[in-house]
Amino acid sequence: MNRNYTELPNGYLESINNGINGVRQFRGGMTAGRLSRKDAVVRLKKLIRTADAVVIGAGAGLSTSAGFIYTGERFEKWFPDFIRVYGIPDMYAGGFYPYPSKEIFWAYWARYIYINRYLDPPKPVYEDLLSLIKDKDYFVITTNVDHCFQKAGFDRERLFYTQGDYGLFQSTDPGNRKTYSNESWVMQAMEAQGFVRNAEGQFEAPENGTLSMEIPTELLPVCPDDRTEMTMNLRSDESFVEDEGWQYASAAYYEFLKSHERKHVLFLEIGVGLNTPIIIKYPFWQMTNDNPNAVYACLNYNEAYCPVQIVRQSICIDGDSGEVIREML
Fold this sequence. Notes:
The chain is 38% helix and 17% strand. The protein is globular. The protein has 13 helices and 13 strands. It has two domains: 11-65 and 122-162 and 242-328, Rossmann fold; 72-120 and 183-220, no CATH class. Strands 4-3-2-10-11-13 form a six-stranded parallel beta sheet, with helices on both faces. A three-stranded antiparallel beta sheet has the order 6-5-9, with helices on one face. The protein has a two-stranded antiparallel ribbon with strand order 1-12. By secondary structure, the chain is of the alpha/beta class.
């Protein structure tokens, strides 16, 4: 692209606006579809093979299926001291806890970022999905911020992370619209807490199990350009930085959709809940409704449904999305 990125089309807002406008058309209620699970899987596999293009919309359920679980054994392995001292019930809640110091806050977040951004998920669900669509004309839009698509080998030019990236910091100066890789900082912060690298180069707790719950003050993340405090590049309010890479990805998504408007497109929604339906779910419904050649497929655990209005163009499969993908392989 030769245009200035500030002049590029905003696929994010375009998609949201279309979704909001489109969802108002669906007044007939929702349905779990007309096919049995077996028939739905068979039809979806065929559609992946025959569609002109596949647009994947992925939510947290896909990473959950891959083993990125924020509670239970995985949480207890990495945060036993935080659980004991602060009574944190799960990993997500720990990210919002009012810790008594910034040194403790960033010690928690260093662990959080490391295991959810710089480690691979326990199960090869993303690799399996890539095996299914690698030879297709595809594009991915996701609300996930764990970068699992890119780690699995998906083409980075075909990925749009709408809500940010665990691997990026941004300045607290609202005039600074850049983002910064945090990989080097995370590794230093893990070492500062006492984690040691194993034979595979991955961090683990030391043999004596003793860890520090804080990092040195001099290791607190500071912006290299304006010297202000850093924060995570995660969408929570209007301060979220949509940097140059984000803008190009948004434009690429817009142009991909425009170039396939009337074609045989499969809108494959995986693990998308109701926290942010206007980003993926509603636009997918609307684009399917507007294109008689399109098909909407929903893979979700206990939340696989579609509007009655597009049921003839839809496939709904209730269950673990990783297992469904494995079946199709």
